[in-house]
Design goal:
The chain has helices spanning about 10-15, 25-40, 65-70, 75-90, 110-120, 130-135, 145-155, 165-175; strands at about 45-50, 60-65, 100-105, 125-130, 160. The protein has 8 helices and 5 strands. It has a 5-stranded mixed beta sheet, sandwiched between helices. The longest helix has 18 residues, at about 25-40. With about 180 residues, it is an alpha/beta fold.
């Protein structure tokens, strides 16, 4: 069994079960998680959140925890998936009888996280900053191509890009200004 804990500040930013009505509200939460992670020095500039699609109810959040957790897989999206699946007691967010779920992520996912989107069971993904924005900081996002997104869409996952991109990009720039670790360059 893997044991994963949120940083102490999470309850000050996110309330599990709260309702986020719009795409902008959902993205603002993912960005707030990323920003607080940078400001507290608990990880990289990436945040994510899982919501029930129909209600907007928050199921989990995730923040980049690679350095804090000494684990290369602890990207914001991965932490959000792990915490949601643990909370719901299911290895998939698309289990029979379960409502549809969606992911809001402060930046377009890297190759690992984009693959996990498919296996997670989410039916929709909102992205803030673009891959190019993360690449400007020298983060290596891996082999992600337009065809990667087309594949997910063909498998029934709706994708919305550039949701509050400027706000999300600001967190990346804040991380750069704070000289945060680029752990995969």
């Amino acid at each position: 069994m893997i044991h994963l804990e949120y940083p102490a500040w999470v309850d000050q930013v996110a309330t599990i079960g709260a309702v986020y009505a719009t795409d902008a509200d959902k993205m603002r939460l993912a960005i707030a998680v990323a920003r607080r992670n940078v400001d507290e020095g608990t990880g990289g500039p990436f945040g994510a959140a899982i919501f029930e699609s129909a209600t907007g109810r928050l199921v989990s959040v995730g923040m980049n925890s690679v350095v804090r957790g000494n684990n290369c897989t602890l990207h914001g999206e991965m932490v959000a998936f792990m915490m949601a699946q643990q909370r719901l007691g299911s290895f998939t967010l698309a289990a029979p009888g379960m409502p549809a779920h969606e992911l809001a992520t402060s930046c377009e996912p890297c190759a690992m996280c984009l693959g996990a989107v498919l296996w997670s069971g989410v039916k929709r993904m909102l992205c803030g900053a673009a891959r190019d924005d993360a690449s400007r900081l020298n983060f290596d996002e891996g082999p992600v191509f337009p065809e990667s997104y087309a594949y997910l869409e063909a498998r029934g996952i709706a994708i919305v890009h550039n949701v509050l991109r400027d706000e999300a990009r600001e967190v990346l720039e804040r991380y750069r200004a704070n000289k945060g670790a680029i752990y995969n360059a």
